[in-house]
Design brief:
single chain, alpha+beta, 24% strand
Amino acid sequence: MSTFLFGGGDAGGIIIGPHGIKPIPPFDPGLSLQMKAISVLLQAQTNVGNKETQHQLAEIANRLNDLVVGEVQHAVGSMDAGSSIVYQDADGGFTCGSTGKPPIPFPHRGPVRGEIG
């Protein structure tokens, strides 16, 4: 089972599971901001050169992720151990499981470059 959130949860999402697709209503702004915070922390972690700072940012992101997974489960229902959450917004994203595994950031992609027309 996978949970996909559109626009960082602001635009709702879907759960794809063995029994089909279930829509998710938009999340409240507080939960959406928490998910964005995880994404930003992960970006900072991968872009800072100091190993101790990377470690501290990872710990903060992991603690916040554990809280958010619980809130997502409260909003959409319980998730089995094989479930994942995929968060994506215009600035980046991450995926995480429902079992406490640390969130994994998506590679950051810059703007498309080149000539148009």
